[in-house]
Amino acid sequence: MFRKVFKIGLSLAVIGLIVFVGLLVTDGKEDITLQKPSDTAMMSAERGELLLGLAGCVNCHTDVKNDGAVLAGGRALETPFGTFYAPNISSDTANGIGNWSEEDFVRALRHGRRPDGANYFPAFPYVAYTRMTDGDMLAIRTAIMARPAEAGPNKPHDIGFPFNQRWTMRFWKLLHFDAGTFENDSAQSAAWNRGAYISEAVAHCGECHTPRWPSGGLKRGAWLSGTANGPEGEMAPNLTQDEDTGLGGWTDPDLAFLLTDGLKIDGDVVGSVMYEVVEHGTSKLPEDDIAAIVEYLKSLPPVANPDAPSAQGF
Ligand code: HEC
Ligand code: HEC
Questions:
Q1: How far is the CA of 94 from the centre of ligand 2 (A)?
Q2: Average pLDDT over residues 37-63
Q3: What is the pLDDT of residue 6?
Q4: Residue 100: CA atoms inside 13 Å, Cβ hemisphere, count?
């Protein structure tokens, strides 16, 4: 009996090892062939600045609480797995990304991979950014390079074993990550597609407003239906059209007003994390982009999520 159990156990271990080694071997660094827009204005520092704010890069990579320099990193990001410290992504060549090639930069955002081939933790929301176009990524890079180099050193993450093991991220990626640019849905209007691109790829509304599995992966079936365990312990409301807990009761102007001025329908200022999204991101967008986001949000089928806070604002 014992021998039989031992043999089965050994076979399973061998199979496990083969699968494991197989996966290790297949986890290579992606080749990047850049697809640059023909209109160079699309990659200008000015456009990049808008995207840098809208994508939250400045929010996460600046330690505002401790008066840190812009993009010099150091902001603590509390998660159920421990505290991540956003690194320095300024143009500094020692601690920042001043030495990175365009390909290195695009690979990081599109594939969640470091220039040396190691995987990033998804606390860096590349799950969303992967949907951005090369042109938009490179515009962000132009803006970063045009800003001053900040020498601030990087702070190691404070995460316990086994979550601090980067190599485990290759398995996480297999489960929860699908690299590739946003694809237009031809059944929808141009404005809807623009709104979906801004919301899903750039402004990554889903990273905060979608519930997660215990593994930290997004529950895509409950897209944007809110979560009680949002960023930095804050609750992120249900953004679907659910009448009771979602945005069902918000009119188009209500939503546009929140995105441009940060005021909710009850007249309160929206909470801190979302306020940053508005202040550095959506408030700077032209009217037609705001209308596009609203059209996208209004199209979300209602999802009742009893675990999420209500978006009614009362
Ligand atoms: C929610 C917070 C958050 C946002 C938003 C965010 N990042 Fe990060 N970023 C991180 C964290 C945390 C890491 C470290 C990941 C790791 O160690 O695996 C990181 C890592 C990086 C790195 C790798 C730096 C290095 O030294 O290897 C780059 C480049 C980067 N981010 C660029 C960006 C850009 C560009 C944006 C906006 C498009 C952005 N990040 C938005 C949290 C964030
Ligand atoms: C960094 C995390 C984060 C991101 C990114 C984010 N949100 Fe939020 N959002 C929040 C949190 C947290 C709240 C709750 C704030 C509060 O309690 O007042 C919120 C509140 C809101 C509300 C108000 C609902 C209510 O009843 O209070 C709306 C609408 C909203 N977000 C829409 C969006 C849209 C659209 C996007 C993408 C363009 C987005 N959010 C991106 C975290 C985020």
A1: 35
A2: 96
A3: 72
A4: 26
